[in-house]
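Example record for the data management plan.
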Amino acid sequence: MTETPVVDTTTARPIPDLAASPVHVPGRTLRWTTANVDEGLPGIVTPLTWSLYFPPTEQTMRDCWVDLGVMPRSARAIPADVDRRFLSVAHGHAIANVDNMGQMAARVPGGSAAMMEEQLFGSVQAGGLPEPRGWTQTRRYPIVAVKFPVTLRRAIKALATLAEESERAVVVASRVRTRRGRPRRGHHGTRGGSRHVREGLSVHMPLSMAAQGLMGQVQNLAESAGLQSGGELIKSDEGTAEFELVRDLWRLSRDEIDITGFARRHGYHGPREGLVDSVVWREDSTMVTALAARYRARADGEDVDDLVVRRRREHDEAVQRLHAGLSPVRRRLASALIGFASQVPTWRETGRANILRGVDVTRAAARSIGRHLADAGVLADPGDVFFLTIDELASRRTGEYADLVARRRLDHEAYGRIDLPHVWHGAPEPIASTAPVDDSRSISSLTGLGVSAGIAEGRVQVIRDLDDAEIEDGTVMVCKATDPGWASLFPLAEAVVTDVGSAMSHAAILCRELGLPCVANTPTGTTDLKDGMIVRVDGTAGTVEILVQQ
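Corresponding structural encoding:
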């Protein structure tokens, strides 16, 4: 029998059952944030989504720090104390432990907690743990010096192989169908999807950590040569997975491939694609068809081949400006560093793609299970499956499902009405997402992080949901954050502005690949900028100047 939910007497709305919720496990004392994690897991996560990412993400992160030599082997197991973890969840929002991340960054040669926070937030946040100094900071440097290169080489070698395996897995998973009312590969599919996510993370983590270090080294090199930003020096030689998505959209718009071929390669993308319960393009290609029409309408615009030529020329010019500020010896060292750093975009975006394919394997299996359980009368709706965890589905204690789903659906609805602060200590104090916006506030400019060089002017379009995006010519795209599915919109924009993000975020990497100015981490772009404003975006200085108010 379903329990009667506790109701707020002032609003008549259910209050979340925090003690029983699998998506509310906050810390107690340290600093936590939604920054960066809400790029991959936007909005409210369901129990099935969270059970796919946790514990695998926490475990692979700990494994990575151990394998790199930063943490001792005794720290490999996930601790019971939430404040000793790197990741958790609060009020349905995925969150990251700022203090623990910073302590790890400080134990890598050349790294520091302050540098990590600068990259993450654009500034060092107050109230953190003391920066490790002296022997506390350096005692594991010799171990890191030996283990880091070995782990990095292993991850680089595994990346392409893992991409091929995940591509095959997602094609097979997309063919999952029910037969005689029973799911085929359903329960095995959720476990298989989880395995692909874990394997993707095990390669993605060390490459991301190496990428962060390389980005810092290139930035320091650029500043020593008198340049403001080093971002334009980092560009992939072959183009990232998302660049290939853009290329195939151009090909689709010119009838060089059909929608079936496009979906076969990129169908795991779509709005909020990191969430298992989202609907991706292989399930609904309506958005792809609309995007192809927009690309087709820009027939006189720059095509992908011309873009590649332009970006190579701009990159060569950026390297020449760097060399002009360096001695001959340092030029040779700089060329070697930039050549190695050119792998960073591929590491990051191929790694994301591998993980997202694992998510889609889980998604296909979950839909099959949901249909079967709904047909059997266990669930009222196939979508109820997303409110159960992977372990609960594997247990097949179906008599418990109805009560669990009913309570968690109410919790999910309540979580959707709140936001969390940017950074906080311990358990966060929820903020009503329905709080009125002060439209009377007038500003002349915004400042953030310049993460992709260049200057562009255009008309603001605030996009809160990929489902509703209709980019017009001359648009400056303003959004909270982006995931790989948003890549399809970037070529239609003049510039990109995001509330959150860093030089390592998806928006920054793709904008650099496409040659678009980008300012990240504003952090109030979506509230301070209004549709119709004319703005100038300076992706080098990190500023957005309002030229014409709405």
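Summary line stored alongside the record: Residues 1-5, 177-181 have pLDDT under 50 and may be disordered.
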